[in-house]
Automatic annotation (TrEMBL):
Organism of provenance: Physocladia obscura
Protein name as annotated: Mitochondrial carrier protein
Topology term for the membrane: Multi-pass membrane protein
Assigned GO CC terms: membrane; mitochondrion
First and last residues of every Solcar repeat: 197-282
Entry GO MF terms: guanine nucleotide transmembrane transporter activity
UniProt-annotated location(s): Membrane
Any Pfam family the entry gives: Mito_carr
Keywords assigned: Membrane, Transmembrane, Transmembrane helix, Transport
Length: 292
């Protein structure tokens, strides 16, 4: 079914909001624990391996980093510990998906209706890929309005710090996400109408776009996460955090949590996009039928 942003632009705003919101809820239930693990790894300044400690000591540090107070408790208690601040996480995830999936489609539709000739003259055969990427980048910068909910999701505490770093992360991240996906569809599958993509084509496009997005935005994402994790009275600037990371942890610290995010982001995005693409046209059809 439909691609990351339908080329037809005929879904209603209500249908897009409801469909993307539903996909966000399902994604949250399935993937929130892995997101928690990634955030905790990114926020940790400890090196579990490579400092001369034994393998068992390294796994012990990793266990305490991931599960914290539940590190030495039963399996079910450990699992529950991966759902801190679920209410905030739910609000953020659903709001993010509704904003990002709906917003990117609307911005892309606007560009297609008003500036298609400009993109064609600037980018030639790649105009459609660049339009999808640019729309994603614009919407990505706007995600800073959700920053308070994102901070609450991370630490259940309002801390509006890091807005500029969030914008810096979201712009190239969203550009790579939607642009990478469009690139796969346009150049590998040679699709002229992305809405005609099959499930397999959507899956491959989502993996390509997601892996590019997460890798490109990872360094800034780590900095943004550490800024938000600080309490208001212990706030620290992004450049200060960056300097300490390079000095004390090395450049590898910019990619902390990248592996678990890469392992989950492909299935997560293809899952959420597929649900959105299935429900948006269905809801749009129901709304149209009621109007008639």
């Amino acid at each position: 079914m439909g691609g990351h942003a339908s080329d037809k632009g005929d879904e209603s705003l209500s249908a897009r909001l409801l469909g993307s919101g539903f996909s966000g809820i399902l994604e949250l239930v399935c993937f929130h624990p892995v997101d928690t693990i990634a955030k905790r790894l990114m926020n940790s300044t400890q090196k579990p391996f490579g400092n001369g400690q034994s393998l068992s000591q390294g796994f012990s540090i990793l266990n305490e980093t991931i599960f914290r107070d539940a590190a030495h408790k039963g399996t079910f208690t450990k699992y529950k510990s991966l759902f801190p601040g679920l209410g905030f996480a739910a609000g953020y995830k659903v709001a993010q998906r509704m904003y990002k999936f709906t917003g990117q489609r609307h911005v892309k539709d606007y560009m297609n209706n008003n500036h298609a000739s400009t993109f064609k003259s600037l980018f030639g055969d790649n105009w459609k890929t660049m339009m999808h990427a640019t729309a994603g980048s614009i919407v990505g910068v706007g995600e800073i309005v959700l920053l308070p909910l994102d901070a609450l999701k991370i630490k259940m505490q309002i801390n509006p710090a890091g807005a500029s770093w969030t914008a810096a992360r979201n712009a190239p991240g969203s550009f790579a996400l939607f642009g990478g996906s469009a690139f796969v569809k346009e150049n590998i599958f040679e699709l002229k109408d992305y809405s005609q993509a099959t499930f397999f084509q959507n899956f491959c496009a989502s993996i390509g776009g997601a892996f590019a997005s997460i890798t490109v935005s990872s360094p800034l994402d780590v900095i943004k996460t550490r800024i938000q994790a600080k309490s208001v009275d212990k706030a620290e600037g992004g450049w200060s955090i960056l300097s300490k990371m390079v000095k004390n942890e090395g450049f590898g610290s910019f990619f902390k949590g990248l592996v678990p995010k890469l392992l989950v982001v492909g299935p997560k995005l293809v899952f959420s996009f597929t649900i959105a693409d299935m429900t948006i046209p269905l809801i749009s059809k129901v709304i149209d039928e009621k109007k008639n």
